[in-house]
Amino acid sequence: MLGLAVLANTIFTVATSAPGPLHLDWPGVPFTAIATWPVIWLPALLAPLAVFLHVMSLCQNRIVSS
After folding, report:
1. Average pLDDT, the chain
2. Are 16 and 26 in contact (CB under 8 A)?
3. Which helix (H) or strand (E) holds 32?
4. Share of the chain above pLDDT 70, in %
5. From CA 13, how far away is CA 35, in angstroms rounded?
6. Which residues of 2-31 are buried (b: 16+ CB within 10 A; e: fewer)?
7. With a threshold of 0.90, does the pTM exceed it?
8. Residue 20 CA: distances (Å) to CA of 32, 36, 40, 51
């Protein structure tokens, strides 16, 4: 559960600091490196994979505990 919380916080921070409709007025320069190669792999593949693996781990733990 803690891993999912940290992952959600990270995704929220990146989403609100990048330019776009979710951008909040953070101090400093908007985070534009998220749309460049090879950093694009983080939101496009690795973040959804991390969410999926965390959820599957929790499901597996729930099945084993039953």
Report:
1. 80
2. yes
3. none
4. 98
5. 15
6. eeeeeeeeebeeebebbeeeeeeeeeeeeb
7. no
8. 10, 15, 15, 23
